[in-house]
Design goal:
Layout (H helix, E strand, L loop, with lengths): L1 E6 L5 H10 L12 E4 L4 E6 L1 H10 L4 E5 H7 L3 E6 L5 E7 L14 E4 L2 H10 L5 E4 L6 H4 L5 E6 L3 H5 L3 E10 L1 E6 L7 H18 E9 L3 H7 L7 E4 L5 E9 L3 H10 L3 E7 L6
Parallel strand pairs: 1-3, 1-4, 7-8, 7-9
Antiparallel strand pairs: 2-3, 4-11, 5-11, 6-9, 6-10, 12-14, 12-15, 13-14
Helix pairs in contact: 3-4
The structure holds adenosine-5'-triphosphate (ATP), 1-O-pyrophosphono-5-O-phosphono-alpha-D-ribofuranose (PRP) and magnesium ion.
C-alpha cells in the first residue's frame, strides 16, 4: 500500500485534496482526521504540516508527499521533486521599505526576517553577502515596521501583503515555487505503484488544461485544419456521409480553444465544438 503525505493546513491543503479527489482517491471528510486508508486504491494518506512533509518522505517511511517546492528546498531534506502540480504558484523574494535597499549587495550588514531560513541562508552565502537572519513563523512583512529587521524574504503571490505593509521587492526572485510531488532522493520512481499514482495526477493536470475539440471541414482544408489542431499524438479524422467532408477530433490547450475555433472557422471549418475532459491517461 502506497503511503502518501498530504498537507493538512495552509495554502496547499485545499487544492491538494481537491486534486486527489479528482484523481479518484478518497479524501478525509473532517479536518481533524490525521490519516485515512483508501483500500480500493491501495493507498494511505497521512495529513501532515506542509513544512514537515519532505522530512518524513526523506526517511523513506512515507513513499510520496505533496508539498511546496520552496518548502522542500528550505527543509534541506533528502527528497526530490518528481512532478510539478501547477497550483500554489508563488515567487520567493526579498522586500524592504522603498529607498532603503536598491539591490542584493545592499543586504550586507542588514537583518533579514524570514520563515524560510534554509533558502535565505544559502542564497546569501552563494551571493557572498554577510547578513543576519531572524527566523519568524509567519506574517514576516510586519517585522520591518516593528524594527525586528530591515529586510524580509517571503512568499509573494499577488504582492498584496507587501503593498499593505508599504514594502517593495528587491532584486530578482530568489526562486519560483508551486506544489510538487516529492520522493526520497534516489528511491525508485519507476516503481509501478508510484507510477500509477503519478499517472492519475497527470491525468488531472491534462483534464484541467486541455479540452476536446470536434469540427467538420472540407477535405481540401484538412491539412491547414490539422496544423491548427495537431492534438497530442495526431488528430482523429473520420469520413462524413457527405462526400468531400471529414470530421476531426483533437485535444487542444483550453486557454487557446477560442482562438483556435476562430481560426478554424476562418478556413471554413463548421460545427466546431469543445467538450471538457473529465479524466485522462496519456
Ligand atoms: N498566497 C500564496 N499564494 C500561493 N502560494 C502560497 C501562498 N502562501 C503560501 N503559499 C505556498 O504555500 C506553501 C506554504 O504552505 P504553509 O502551509 O506552510 O503556509 P501558508 O499557506 O502560508 O499557511 P499558514 O501560514 O497559514 O500556515 C509554500 O509552498 C508557499 O509557496
Ligand atoms: O503576495 P500575496 O498574494 O499577498 O501572498 C503572499 C502572502 O501569503 C502568505 O501569507 P499567509 O496569509 O499565509 O500568512 P503568513 O505570512 O502568516 O504565512 C505569504 O506568507 C505572504 O505573506
Ligand atoms: Mg503563510
Amino acid at each position: 500500500m502506497l503511503r502518501i503525505a498530504v498537507p493538512n493546513k495552509g495554502s496547499l491543503a485545499g487544492p491538494a485534496a481537491e486534486m486527489l479527489h479528482e484523481a479518484g482517491y478518497r479524501q478525509r471528510r473532517e479536518s481533524k482526521e490525521l490519516r485515512i486508508v483508501d483500500p480500493a486504491n491501495e493507498v494511505e494518506f497521512f495529513y501532515l504540516r506542509p513544512r514537515d512533509i519532505a522530512i518524513y518522505v526523506a526517511t523513506g517511511r512515507l513513499d510520496i508527499g505533496i508539498t511546496g517546492r520552496d518548502l522542500l528546498i528550505d527543509s534541506g531534506a533528502g527528497a526530490e521533486e518528481i512532478l510539478p502540480l501547477g497550483f500554489a504558484r508563488s515567487t520567493f523574494r526579498y522586500a524592504a521599505k522603498p529607498g532603503t535597499v536598491d539591490d542584493i549587495t545592499d543586504l550586507n550588514g542588514k537583518t533579514v526576517a524570514t520563515s524560510y531560513e534554509g533558502i535565505v541562508a544559502k542564497h546569501l552565502a552563494d551571493a557572498g553577502i554577510d547578513a543576519s537572519i531572524v527566523h519568524l513563523d509567519g506574517a514576516v512583512e510586519t517585522a520591518i515596521e516593528l524594527g525586528v529587521a530591515e529586510v524580509v524574504a517571503d512568499v509573494v503571490e499577488t504582492g498584496t501583503s507587501l503593498r499593505n505593509a508599504g514594502l517593495e521587492v528587491v532584486g530578482e526572485p530568489i526562486m519560483k515555487s508551486e506544489a510538487v510531488v516529492v520522493r526520497r532522493t534516489g528511491a525508485d520512481a519507476e516503481e509501478p505503484e508510484v507510477q500509477r499514482f503519478l499517472r492519475r495526477l497527470q491525468g488531472v493536470l491534462v483534464a484541467r488544461t486541455y479540452v476536446m475539440m470536434d469540427y467538420d471541414c472540407r477535405v481540401e482544408q484538412l491539412e491547414k485544419a490539422v496544423a491548427l489542431t495537431p492534438g497530442l499524438e495526431s488528430p482523429t479524422v473520420s469520413p462524413l456521409h457527405n462526400e468531400g467532408w471529414v470530421a476531426v477530433r483533437a485535444m487542444v490547450p483550453a486557454d487557446e480553444a477560442q482562438r483556435i475555433m476562430d481560426d478554424l472557422y476562418g478556413i471554413g471549418a463548421r460545427a466546431i465544438l469543445t467538450t471538457a475532459i473529465h479524466a485522462c491517461r496519456l
